[in-house]
Amino acid sequence: MDTPLNAHFHEQKTQLKAPYAAEVVRQQLEQMYGNSIYTDGFNVYTTIDSKLQEAANAAIWTELLAYDQRHGYRGPERNLGSPTLENMQEWESLLSNIPTVNQLEPAAVVDMSTQSVTVLRANGTLATIPWRGLAWARRQINADYLGRAPKKANDILKLGDLIRIMPIDHTWRLAQIPTAETAFVALNPNDGKILALVGGFDYNLSNFNRATNAERQPGSSFKPFIYSAALEKGYTLATLINDAPIVVENPTDNSLWRPQNDEHRFFGPTRLREALTHSRNLVSIRLLDQIKVPYAVSYAQKFGFTPSQLPPTLSLALGTASVTPLQLATAYAVFANGGFKVVPYAIDRIQNTQGDILYQATPLVVCDHCQPLSQGKTPHSYAPRVITAQNAFLITSALREVIQSGTAAQAKSLKRDDLAGKTGTTNNQVDAWFVGYHPDLVALAWVGFDQPQSLHEYGAQAALPIWIAFMQPILRRLPSHPLEQPAGIVNIKIDPQTGKRANTNDPMAQFEYFMSPYVPDEDTSSTSPSNTTQPREENNLY
């Protein structure tokens, strides 16, 4: 009885915060081995890259909170009353029972000055929030309006308010738990390894994995698949499609659909490269009408989408499909790796307690010139080619321009010319996306509400900053990769107004890539798809 107690709680320390990825792995293990995974002592080695996962965690934390704070302060979680010396211990006990949510600590306001507040933390210490940590907190009146900028601390808080605080730059900042959610996926496009995965802001707050299970509309981030389908039919990046008003009649109820560009402007005949770069909705709809919806639905299945996900209507051009973030990232891997379809996976191998390998992943590996081994030799799995190298090259060329001069121009801050990607925003700004890639890495960011409502921001504002914050530290690991021109692609000068071959001395001429069979000529009377200047009108398209 006199011996001092030296027992203490112990567990294996978590080396990496990746709970959503860990749960994906646990579910797969349970399917493979049942309840024995809890008793047999398996060692499971995943594909998660710790540096990429840490970068994803940091990007999500910084940029989702930034989005949330741009839309104002919703107020304290509750008020505890007037602080006194007698109730400090009671408040401390209360705070210790409130969980911290992804570094957002509970705290209670116990003192205020003109432009700072002092708060009690759960560990009993006091912390000061300076004005620079408070000044952001304009009152959120509703989803559309914010109150005027605060001038004093009591414009924001009262004594006894139960709030959240966050550490930043060696000081404290007023915070709040975001109401919007997020997902992030990074994978290797050459073999499908999932390198980083985040399914939400905080796993303990919500263990629903939005990266693997949330089916959302991809918006304009789906457009590259429509353009790829058109290229397969003989269209080119120089093909002109008229960017003009459209009215589509629904024959079932005689209602009319009048889609718009985001700018609410019309630009007339527009080259496909320019239309994809600037995400012109009306061009995409007319293009889909020309290549026919059934063809586009069939073509999209090459990338792993299923018919049930793809509405057989012209709205498909605007991304009204239903896809998961992991599925969309995997589809973009086809463009990144030059035309091959890989399968994402998270478990590399499983060993028992004796070190024997019970399971070893055999991913579909991209290899353009490999041949399957003869029967009897060690099997190798090669990713199937689903689109041509030329098609993937042309789409990547256009998506690189999206970053250089289009809707994702903010990513030029990364100072790299070997990145490609596409923004996506759905109707009423309900879902915000950015999918971007380097030949060795595909990464996707999504932001939205679990119960769909407007974000009041586009993909370039809500999702792209997450991708940029993730890529910033990772690009040091990715060597510069110039665009490699495959055989069958030619680069010629065109007249940007007509899409036709230009005189080499024309000072306004621009270079454009073409598949060899579809190089335009100077004959303006040609009506082949690569020289189309007006879309073919259908009975239901005006």
Description:
With 542 residues, this protein is of the alpha+beta class. Among the domains are: 13-67 and 178-216 and 323-384 and 417-474, DD-peptidase/beta-lactamase superfamily (Beta-lactamase); 74-175, Nucleic acid-binding proteins (OB fold (Dihydrolipoamide Acetyltransferase, E2P), Beta Barrel). 24% of the residues lie in helices and 19% in strands. It is built from 12 helices and 20 strands. The chain has helices at residues 19-33, 50-70, 88-96, 210-213, 223-232, 272-277, 281-291, 293-300, 325-336, 389-405, 459-462, 464-474, and strands spanning 43-46, 78-79, 105-112, 117-121, 126-129, 161-168, 171-175, 181-187, 194-198, 240-243, 248-250, 255-257, 268-271, 347-351, 357-360, 420-425, 431-438, 441-448, 489-494, 510-515. The strands form 6 sheets. Strands 2, 3, 4, 5, 6 and 7 form a 6-stranded antiparallel β-sheet that branches. A 5-stranded antiparallel β-sheet has the order 9-8-18-17-16, sandwiched between helices. A hairpin with a 4-residue loop joins β3 and β4 (117-121). α5 (223-232) packs across α10.
Any key phrases for this structure?
alpha+beta, OB fold (Dihydrolipoamide Acetyltransferase, E2P), Beta-lactamase, 542 residues, 19% strand, 5-stranded antiparallel beta sheet, disordered C terminus, 6-stranded antiparallel beta sheet, 20 strands, 12 helices, globular
